[in-house]
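Quick one, tokens below:
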């Protein structure tokens, strides 16, 4: 739990936690065994050919794609999730 709390503080300090629900994030973090590289919030630019990047797990409402492995806060700065492409 302490690792998850420390990771949350780091996200909050960097501004990456904006729009992310703390309780949902902590629940997901603890359920997955703690923070890890898969807690990434990476977002890819909109696809010009209609094919999402290979590692994408969801399409954001602004047309970008995310490869996050955590549902809480996915696409938070991109209008939210339009649709999930893979189970998370």
């Amino acid at each position: 739990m302490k690792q998850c709390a420390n990771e949350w503080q780091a996200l909050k300090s960097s501004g990456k936690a904006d729009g992310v629900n703390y309780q949902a994030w902590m629940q997901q973090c603890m359920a997955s065994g703690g923070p890890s590289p898969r807690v990434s919030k990476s977002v890819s630019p909109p696809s010009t050919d209609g094919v999402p990047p290979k590692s994408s797990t969801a399409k954001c409402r602004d047309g970008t794609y995310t490869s996050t492995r955590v549902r809480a806060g996915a696409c938070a700065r991109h209008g939210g999730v339009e649709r999930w492409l893979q189970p998370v």
